[in-house]
Design goal:
67% helix; mainly alpha; 210 residues; 10 helices; disordered N terminus
Length: 210
């Protein structure tokens, strides 16, 4: 987290800076947060903040993600379908919460500021894609998923609909939607032995998949 540091940083000072950045983010919104404001609220000099973080986006995102990190836990239920359902459900719940709505604001800001886009991709989305990749890898190893899957595309297939509803259509992200999304996605992801789409009779599955 943060930039490279030439000497050990004070943990107390670091926490003060990140706490101030997080509180200002929730209070004012990303656009209205300034490094000057963070320095004033935390009681730390602006020079010290810039020594540890390259820009406002970096320190604000560090503050936000440190406070929000525990919201999204990594499931390991023993089945890839349940793991991904829990992950998708938790993500949807988080993104529609007051804290999670900050992510939408950051995504919007990232369309105009490449630094912000790079920061939230590196600090938030890239690590979570790696987590999803591990879940898919486990599913393949256990024989639940097809061995020829394009895992990157499969991750998009699972999680892109959440962001489409959140950012484009504005429709709700209820549990029923998440369940149906997972079921439809897994019709193409699972091995033949695992196919089980609700509402389809066994005879229909056999007829359509000889």
């Amino acid at each position: 987290m943060g930039g490279n540091i030439g000497r050990p940083r004070s943990e107390e000072t670091r926490k003060s800076i990140l706490s101030a950045a997080y509180e200002l983010l929730l209070e004012k919104g990303f656009q209205n947060v300034t490094v000057d404001g963070i320095a004033e609220k935390s009681g730390v000099s602006k020079a010290t903040i810039y020594k540890w973080w390259p820009n406002k986006a970096a320190v604000v995102l560090d503050g936000f993600f440190e406070e929000s990190e525990e919201v999204l836990q990594i499931p390991d239920t023993g089945t890839v379908r349940k793991d991904l359902f829990i992950q998708a459900k938790n993500l949807a719940a988080f993104l529609t919460s007051p804290k999670g709505k900050v992510i939408t604001e950051l995504i919007a800001e990232g369309q105009f500021d490449q630094n912000i886009a790079e920061e939230y991709r590196r600090r938030y989305f890239s690590p979570r894609r790696l987590i999803s990749q591990k879940i898919f890898d486990r599913g393949i190893q256990r024989g639940e998923l097809r061995e020829d899957l394009d895992i990157g595309l499969s991750i998009d297939l699972i999680f892109a609909p959440i962001f489409y509803r959140l950012l484009i259509t504005g429709e709700s992200l209820e549990i029923d939607y998440i369940e149906k999304m997972i079921e439809y996605a897994f019709w193409g992801l699972e091995t033949e032995a695992c196919h089980r789409l609700p509402g389809r009779k066994k005879s229909e599955q056999t007829e359509e998949n000889p």
